[in-house]
Amino acid sequence: MQLSNIPRLRHLDTDRFFLIAGPCAVESEEVAFEVAEKVHAICERLTIPYIFKGSYRKANRSRLDSFTGIGDEKALKILKKVGDHFGIPVTTDIHADEEAAMAAEYVDILQIPAFLCRQTSLLVAAADTGKVVNVKKGQFVSAGAMKFAQDKILQSGNDKVILTERGTTFGYQDLVVDFRGIPVMQAYGATVVLDCTHSLQQPNQASGVTGGRPALIGAIANAGIAVGVDGLFIETHPRPAEALSDGANMLPLDQLENLLERLVRIREAVHYSA
């Protein structure tokens, strides 16, 4: 996929990786704008193509009393407002066929959650909107098997596909990243993103609240850039301990700038040596 197919994506001539980043969920307009303003400023300085991410609804929750959202229309309008204000593309995940057309009215990229990567009708519904579709690799499938998810979208008449590596189930409460999967997916023409936060989830905790290892986000990101991934996905929050969803996974916002500076240097070194 040509990144030029993503509306309002800047700095495409810099040979940088692109970044998908934002809070796990749209908690409020204040938090969304606080994150977008900070990340946008960093990416402008470092000339990194930036896409804002926020889930308008959280459907895959461990417990019935978990936070799911502030209301679909309200959250989607906040996403659109962020995109329009900063002049950047925005993305959110969808979970059911009927959500595709609804969300497509507000965002530039539709994200398919990992647990739903084989859901044919959802992939087709997303493809039918004509939007860019980002499919997260299921924790239970190989990188090679993701070709079939991509093909469902391509065969539906939409060639704007991104695939995202986000770890593979390793036991009941941990994930591992097989970095061989990045070139495997790239080999069949996919634009590939590495999800540096969900790859470090620790699901199925006894508390019913998913854990994580955010201290290792930098290690995962470093390796992804060294392998040659096209883009990175990082969930970040100004106050992760207060986040209403997935606070245990997110990178503190004040740590993002130093991380991105280092990743740009790694990217330059890898590109030079190639």
Key terms for this structure?
274 residues, eight-stranded parallel β-barrel, 13 strands, 8 helices, two-stranded antiparallel ribbon, alpha/beta, single chain
Q: Explain this structure to me?
A:
With 274 residues, the protein is α/β, with parallel strands linked by helices. Helices cover 35% and strands 18% of the residues. It has eight helices and 13 strands. It has helices spanning 29-46, 72-86, 97-104, 120-128, 146-154, 181-187, 217-227, 256-273, and strands spanning 18-22, 50-53, 90-93, 109-112, 132-136, 161-165, 168-169, 175-176, 191-195, 201-202, 211-212, 231-237, 251-252. The chain has an eight-stranded parallel β-barrel, surrounded by seven helices. The chain has a two-stranded antiparallel sheet with strand order 7-8. Strand 2, helix 2 and strand 3 form a beta-alpha-beta unit. Helix 1 (29-46) runs parallel beside helix 2, helix 4 packs across helix 5 (146-154) and helix 7 runs parallel beside helix 8 (256-273). The model has no long low-confidence stretch (mean pLDDT 91).
